[in-house]
Amino acid sequence: MDTRAADRLDAISQRIARAQERFGAPPERVQLVAVSKTFAAEDIIPFLEAGQRVFGENRVQEAQAKWPALRQAWPDIELHLIGPLQTNKAREAVALFDVIETVDREKLASTLAAEMQRAGRKLPCFVQVNIGLEEQKAGIAPAEAVAFVERCRSVHGLDIVGLMCIPPDGVPPGPYFAQLAELGRAAAVASLSMGMSGDFEVGIAMGATHVRVGSALFGHRPPLGA
Ligand SMILES: *Cc1c(COP(=O)(O)O)cnc(C)c1O
């Protein structure tokens, strides 16, 4: 057993529990989504052995290469897609993932709905909101988010359980998380996926039900393309 993985998992779990106690929200336990993108199966296994079951990946192809084998050994894994999804990968994504956190446009909503129907698999989904209206980030504009959630439900029949966001870099994330929580109330969703290694406690203070933590668990990722 890799004690470093177990220790890191324990430390993050304790910080989540303390933040939740301190800020009194929400009643259920905040879910830790361990973001394993760029890390190999051998780096992930110690976390599975330490009891972690909920993981996040941002690329369909990368996830496809790692997770089917891990699932054979740990059938109760819950895999979240947290990266942008192209419609031509929707079929693979529906087959592989348990939760899609990045529904952000009409075409994707309708394609996912069709693929879920075809596969007989109705996955819980989050709508990703481009909370800082940043050109380089995915997500629906905040002003359109509530109406989009309604259309995902009524037109496409998707099971929208929450909202997800990645706030802008280099500025305090609190106001953005607060705005996502406000939109979540307006859209009547129960879950909010917000907060990463550097700011998950702020996310919890603002009502996060899911935090997506990568580097604080797995260590620094090699730069993209390396
Ligand atoms: C990589 C990633 C994370 C994890 O980021 P860390 O800062 O390493 O915790 C969380 N959410 C999304 C969408 C990501 O792509």
Detail the topology: elements first, then pairings.
Layout: H1 3-23, E1 31-35, H2 41-49, E2 54-57, H3 60-73, E3 78-81, H4 90-96, E4 99-103, H5 106-119, E5 124-129, H6 142-154, E6 159-165, H7 174-187, E7 191-193, H8 200-205, E8 210-213, H9 215-218
Helix pairs in contact: 4-5, 6-7
The structure holds pyridoxal-5'-phosphate.
Pyridoxal-5'-phosphate binds at residues 35, 37, 58, 82-83, 166, 196-198, 212-216.
In short:
With 226 residues, the protein is α/β, with parallel strands linked by helices.
Mean pLDDT comes to 96
Helix content: 40-55%
Number of helices: 9
Kindly report the spatial arrangement of strands forming the biggest sheet: 7-6-5-4-3-2-1-8
- In total, the number of strands is 8
- Provide the low-confidence segments as ranges: none
User: What class would the helix/strand composition place it in?
Assistant: alpha/beta
Q: Strand-residue fraction?
A: 15-25%
Q: Ions, cofactors, ligands: which are bound?
A: pyridoxal-5'-phosphate
Question: Tell me, what's the shape?
Answer: globular
Assembly annotation: single chain
The biggest beta sheet is recorded as: 8 strands, parallel
Q: Give the terminus-to-terminus CA distance.
A: 29 Å
Commentary on this structure:
It is a single chain. The chain is an alpha/beta fold. The chain has 9 helices and 8 strands. The chain has helices at 3-23, 41-49, 60-73, 90-96, 106-119, 142-154, 174-187, 200-205, 215-218; strands at residues 31-35, 54-57, 78-81, 99-103, 124-129, 159-165, 191-193, 210-213. Strands 7-6-5-4-3-2-1-8 form an 8-stranded parallel beta sheet. Strand 2 (54-57), helix 3 and strand 3 form a beta-alpha-beta unit. Helix 4 (90-96) crosses helix 5 and helix 6 (142-154) runs parallel beside helix 7. The relative contact order is 0.15. The mean pLDDT is 96. Bound molecules: pyridoxal-5'-phosphate (PLP).
